[in-house]
Design goal:
By secondary structure, the chain is of the alpha/beta class. The chain contains 22 helices and 18 strands. The strands form six sheets. Strands 11-14-17-10-18 form a five-stranded parallel sheet. The protein has a four-stranded mixed sheet with strand order 1-2-4-3. A three-stranded parallel sheet has the order 5-8-9, with helices on both faces.
């Protein structure tokens, strides 16, 4: 019996675990037998591997071949094991030195012609290999830039199985050119995706009037606070929301890797951009399902939803009352915990989901531009806005009712409308003050501070808390609402350069939290 071993990676969500791929050639009926709970796509690897080996000029062993995937008790899925299976099989047949592939982690799908095709999820797979102590990984050439984002990892990229075998044999590379195809883009499942690269021409100076709303955007960008705009059509709700990313600084290196890993799994990485450095902006259509919003899938084919694709960025829900109630209420757990756990009979996946939520709503179903033209009864208006549940609204930090800009504001607001660049500078300074204050904690923004820690370590002076205490006494402010008010007050103080919130900061935060519904 001849035995050889290599490795690959299996992904569950954005988490991965290293799989040992062992190939043994024994006497018996010729054929390839896979063990280790492979799914249908992995079971078909025997046909892809056989054709790829033949078309790469190699001989197929005319004996019984057993390929074992360890740990055997964990289900494996997908075609990412093709390269590892082919190399382990050829090493067992002594077509390549077994020692040359024993410490490698091989990731990639084989075409029938021997081409190594690009796959989604390379970055989290390489991260999992690095965390397991592996130091060399083989990936498709089209995914090389993505894999090289992982520090202290030697990346070998190959376009064909023949080229990979030449590397393992220490032979000159083949003469023919390898052509790679970009990874397929995953279906959006009801998502309307607005990518940051399409938004480079937007500027906050485009918005006329709405001084309070622009101030709310600045507070939201500085502290990561959730935002709700209500008002008639044409008052600027969507314009304001679309310009929120222009106020936010680039992602920190750790956050950029985290965001890129999610998009790699989803197959939504922008072409030619292996690392996402700007906060993502996602705007699902109101017909999006609950699975499209929070993630889902069948079996172990679990995919991230909009809340995860907007991780470290903005999730914008335009016409929020038009969404199905269950879809909106599914946001409550991600808003509190910053992650989504999807459980199925075959396994559980956990996706990060720490985003800034922006809601926009018309005051009634008819969406009349002027209130005098509205034909909706008061009861209908209340039912329409009640589609956004109270518990969800209780988790929104900033609520504003917008009015249409006046004619004077539309024509003469040029000197008062600040550009995004100027506001972004203030936001960056406020974030630096926040990080300095939270330097010995695991949190990066005011919105992430847990309520108990907020009340224990970051409580403003008693005289500044008088307005909030009165609201608690009257029952107009809940305990959760108090936490929201304190977080916003700290952000307002950071924007103003103060060491702690004062009376005006608490009062402003309380007014923004309570809002005024039509």
């Amino acid at each position: 019996m001849t035995l050889a071993k290599t490795r690959s990676v299996s992904l569950v969500g954005v988490d991965g675990f290293v799989v040992d791929v062992e190939a043994a050639i024994t006497s018996g009926v010729p054929g390839l037998h896979l063990v280790g709970l492979p799914d249908a796509a992995l079971s078909e690897a025997r046909d892809r591997v056989r054709a790829a080996i033949y078309n790469s000029g190699e001989d197929w062993p005319n004996r019984h071949v057993t390929v074992s995937l360890f740990p055997a008790s964990l289900p494996k899925r997908g075609s990412t094991f093709d390269c590892a299976i082919a190399v382990a099989l050829l090493a067992a047949a002594e077509a390549v030195p077994p020692r040359s592939c024993a410490g490698l982690v091989l990731i990639g799908e084989l075409g029938l012609d021997g081409r190594i095709r690009a796959i989604p999820g390379v970055l989290p797979a390489v991260l999992a290999a690095a965390n397991a102590g592996c130091r060399t990984v083989v990936v498709p050439r089209a995914n090389a830039a993505e894999a090289e984002l992982v520090p202290d990892m030697e990346v070998i990229s190959a376009g064909t199985l023949r080229g990979l075998l030449c590397i393992l044999r220490d032979e000159p590379p083949p003469q023919e050119a390898d052509e790679d195809h970009p990874p397929p883009t995953a279906p959006s499942d009801g998502l309307t995706i607005r990518r940051p690269d399409r938004r480079t021409g937007l500027d906050l100076a485009d918005v006329r009037g709405q001084a309070e709303a622009r101030r709310a955007l600045e507070i939201s960008a500085a502290g990561g606070h959730h935002l709700f705009f209500s008002g008639p059509p044409g008052c600027g709700k969507t314009m304001l929301a679309e310009r929120l990313p222009t106020l936010m600084p680039p992602l920190e290196p750790d956050s950029a890797l985290e965001v890129t890993a999610i998009h790699s799994v989803a197959g939504t990485l922008p072409p030619g951009q292996p690392l996402i450095t700007r906060p993502p902006f996602y705007a699902p259509h109101h017909t999006a399902t609950r699975a499209a919003m929070v993630g889902g899938g069948s079996g172990r084919l679990l995919q991230p939803g909009a809340v995860s694709l907007a991780h470290r960025g903005i999730l914008f829900l335009d016409e929020a009352p038009e969404f199905v109630g269950g879809t909106l209420d599914a946001l409550r757990q991600p808003l509190e915990e910053g992650e989504v756990r999807i459980s199925r009979a075959e396994g559980t996946a956990c996706f990060p989901a720490r985003f800034t939520l922006v809601l926009a709503a018309n005051p009634c179903p008819c969406a009349a531009a002027k209130q005098v033209d509205c034909s909706c009864a008061p009861a209908l208006r209340r039912r329409y806005l009640a589609r956004i549940s109270g518990p969800l609204l209780d988790r929104i930090d900033l609520k504003l009712e917008l009015s249409p800009a006046s004619r004077a504001e539309l024509r003469y607001d040029l000197e008062f409308a600040e550009a995004s660049r100027l506001v972004a500078e203030r936001v960056l300074l406020a974030r630096e003050r926040t990080l300095k204050r939270l330097g010995d904690t695991p949190w990066r923004s005011n919105s992430e501070i847990p309520g108990p820690e907020l009340r224990r370590r970051f409580t403003p002076p008693p005289e500044a808390m008088r307005a909030a205490d009165d609201a608690l006494q009257l029952g107009t402010l809940s305990a959760r609402g108090l936490d929201r008010v304190l977080r916003v007050a700290w952000t307002i103080a950071d924007l103003s350069g103060r060491d702690e919130p004062g009376t005006d900061d608490i009062g402003g935060a309380l007014a923004l939290w309570s809002g005024r519904r039509p």
